[in-house]
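Schema walk-through. Below, the input block comes first and the output block second. Nothing else is stored per chain. Lengths vary across the set, and this one has 298 residues.
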Amino acid sequence: MDPELEPFLPFLPLMDMSDPVAGRADFAARAAAAPAPDTSRMDVEDHTVPGAPDVPVRVYRPHRAQGAVVWLHGGGGVFGDLDTEHPWAARVADLSGAVVVSVGYRLAPEDPYPAALDDACAVLAWAAGRADALGTDPARIAVGGHSAGANLAAALALRARDERGPAIRFQALNQPSLDDRQETWSSVHFTDTPWITSATVAASWRHYLGGRPAGPYAAPARADDLSGLPPAYIATAEFCPNRDEGIAYALRLMQAGVPVELHQWPGTFHGSQAILSAEVSQRQIAELGAALRRALAE
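--- output ---
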């Protein structure tokens, strides 16, 4: 474990998926206690994307922004909203220099798959159609997210390719949850890691799938064909059950001819970038922003 992260381990709560309502309240309280982001160099506005139902979004528009990112929060598909994601969405906008459209997608178990993905698709189409109003170029739109949000970003790239949806220039997948089968080495051996355990991951998949079998749009690791997908930045944490499925997905993308930047962060665990005082966390967030900045530059 990274020596700057290790002292925090006794104080980290686990994500409790047994009671989604109580878990959401705890998740929101912890997010509210996080340091407020600096939004002085950007405009922040809330909008509603028409749909069935409508989808709330929060738009972060840095001054002199280049490109846009449809950003999808983590939380196992069960927790999280625009407010809990506010610190991270603002930092992504600041470090990438891109317009960030943070998506308040529907949550499981009340709204299982494909509700969240349908919401993400609606927001991608909205962002592409409003590029002028957002102050960006429709040819320079990326998708990205953390954990369950990275799952949605990867699924969004697959679905947009298959359904000839809006063009996606880049996908940024941070510690992605991609495979419901939980058969990788890290999934089998990292059963009691900080913040999330193998039991937590299994519960989040049960909630998200709602009893339905998983296909490639629910679990992108199940996709047979990864060709023709956007270039990717994939980051994994060493002590994370999801580590090996992220690495495997990166390798399969490369084998399908997709350019990939893969960064495996030693000494880290799932979500440890939230510990902002650690130098490794600062580097993780900075590199994610830099990857998006490079991908969306003119």
